[in-house]
Design a protein that fits this description.
The protein folds into 2 domains: about 5-10 and about 250-345, Aspartate Aminotransferase, domain 1 (Alpha-Beta Complex), CATH 3.90.1150.10; about 15-250, Type I PLP-dependent aspartate aminotransferase-like (Major domain) (Aspartate Aminotransferase, domain 2). About 40% of the residues lie in helices and about 15% in strands. The protein has 14 helices and 13 strands. Strand 12 (about 315) and strand 13 form a beta hairpin. The relative contact order is 0.17. The protein binds pyridoxal-5'-phosphate. Pyridoxal-5'-phosphate binds near residues 59 and 60.
C-alpha cells in the first residue's frame, strides 16, 4: 500500500542525489576539526544565515539546549513562548539540563507580544532570577506552522534588545517562513544572537541541525555540545547530506506550502474545520484541523485512517496536525485528504 504520511516533515528520506553525496563524502575526525565536509557545511550554514560561525549538532533539540547552555548561566531566567517547542516539547531540558527558570509568555499568535517581553523581566534584585535570554520560534510548530510577518518578528526582537536580552531563534523551519514571504532568510536570522535550524525536516537530510552565531558564541557552543555528547567523528557523511539539502531543497519548500494549501482547501470544502490563517500571516507546510464535538476524536480518526494508509498525529483530543513535505506529490495529498474526509464525516 502506498502510504500518505502526514505525521511530520521529519519522515522524509534521502533521494538518489543526496545518497550519492553521502556515499562520496570526504570525511575525517571532526572532533579534531579534520572533517572537510563538516567544515564546509558549517561555513555554508553561517554564510546563508548571515552569522559569523556555525556548528553541526545531531538534532534540533540538541541545537536548542546547546544554545541555552551557551547563552545563560544556571539559575538564570529565560523568556519562552508558552506553546513553544523549547518549553513544551523538549522533555524539560531547559530546566533539567540547562538549569534555567522559564518565564512562559503567551505566544498564541506565533510570537510573544513586544509588550509581554517588555513587562516580563523583573528588576535586577537578589530576590529574582536574572533574565538573560529571549527565545522565539519561526515558523511556530504548535501555532499552525504559520509564517509570521517579518515586522512582528522584528518588533519582538527589538523589545528583547530594549531589555538587554540575548535572543535565540528556534528556526527549525525558518526557511519555510523565508520562502513563504519570498525574503532572504537573513531577514530573520541575522538580527538574532543565535539561530538553530534543522536539516532533517523539510530540507530532507537524514539527520542534523545547525546552530549559528558569533565566533565567540560558537566556541562556547562547542564546549556545550561536547558535554552533551554531541561531538561526532566522521560526521561528514551527514554533513554531505546537509550541504546537498541547502544547495538543492530550499526552493522546494514552496511546493510543500502549495500542497498544504490544497490540503487545507480540500478538507475545508469537504466540511472539516481547518484552523484559519490569520490576516497578515501565511500558511506553510502544516494544516491543523479541529473536530466538532460530535463524531470521532483525533485519536479515533487517526486509528481509522491508518489501515487505509493515511498517517497523521492527533495533537489534542479534538485537534490534529497534517504536514506536507518533500517527496509527497499532489495526488497523494488529495488522496489523503479524501480518506480523512470519508473517515471523519461518515463515522
Ligand atoms: C520548532 C521545533 N524546534 C525544534 C525541534 C526539534 O528537532 P529534532 O526533532 O530534530 O530534535 C522541532 C521538531 O519537530 C520543532 O518543531
Amino acid at each position: 500500500m502506498n502510504i500518505v504520511d502526514f505525521r511530520s516533515d521529519t519522515v522524509t528520506c534521502p533521494d538518489g542525489g543526496m545518497r550519492k553525496a553521502i556515499f562520496e563524502a570526504s570525511v575525517g575526525d571532526s572532533g579534531y576539526g579534520d572533517d572537510p565536509s563538516i567544515n564546509e557545511l558549517e561555513s555554508l550554514a553561517a554564510d546563508i544565515v548571515g552569522q559569523e560561525a556555525a556548528i553541526f549538532v545531531p538534532s534540533g533539540v540538541m541545537g536548542n539546549i546547546t544554545a541555552l547552555g551557551s547563552h545563560c548561566r544556571r539559575g538564570e531566567a529565560v523568556l519562552v513562548g508558552d506553546k513553544s517547542h523549547i518549553y513544551r516539547y523538549e522533555g524539560g531540558g531547559l530546566s533539567a539540563i540547562a538549569g534555567l527558570l522559564p518565564y512562559a509568555l503567551d505566544d498564541s499568535s506565533g510570537l510573544p507580544s513586544p509588550e509581554s517581553v517588555l513587562n516580563s523581566c523583573p528588576e535586577v534584585n537578589v530576590h529574582f532570577a536574572q533574565t538573560s535570554l529571549l527565545c522565539l520560534e519561526v515558523t511556530h510548530n504548535d501555532r499552525g506552522g504559520l509564517a509570521q510577518p517579518l515586522s512582528d518578528f522584528k518588533a519582538v526582537v527589538e523589545a528583547g534588545r530594549e531589555k538587554g536580552l540575548a535572543i535565540h531563534l528556534d528556526g527549525a523551519r525558518v526557511f519555510n517562513s523565508a520562502v513563504a514571504w519570498g525574503v532572504d532568510v537573513k531577514e530573520y536570522t541575522s538580527s538574532v544572537d543565535s539561530v538553530q535550524f534543522c536539516l532533517s525536516k523539510g530540507l530532507g537530510a537524514p539527520m542534523g541541525a545547525m546552530l549559528c552565531g558569533s565566533e565567540e558564541f560558537i566556541s562556547r557552543a562547542r564546549f556545550e555540545r561536547k558535554r552533551l555528547g554531541g561531538e561526532l567523528r566522521q560526521a561528514g557523511f551527514m554533513a554531505a547530506a546537509g550541504i546537498y539539502a541547502l544547495k538543492n531543497n530550499i526552493p522546494k519548500l514552496l511546493e510543500d506550502h502549495e500542497n498544504g494549501q490544497v490540503l487545507a482547501d480540500t478538507l475545508a470544502q469537504g466540511g472539516l474545520i481547518v484552523e484559519p490563517v490569520p490576516q497578515g500571516t501565511r500558511r506553510t507546510n502544516m494544516v491543523y484541523v479541529n473536530l466538532a464535538e460530535k463524531g470521532p476524536s483525533s485519536s479515533e480518526l487517526a486509528a481509522s485512517c491508518k489501515p487505509k494508509g493515511v498517517l497523521f498525529n492527533d495533537m489534542e483530543p479534538r485537534r490534529f496536525r497534517l504536514v506536507t513535505h518533500l517527496g509527497m506529490d499532489r495526488e497523494e495529498v488529495i488522496r489523503g485528504a479524501n480518506c480523512i474526509l470519508r473517515e471523519a464525516l461518515t463515522a
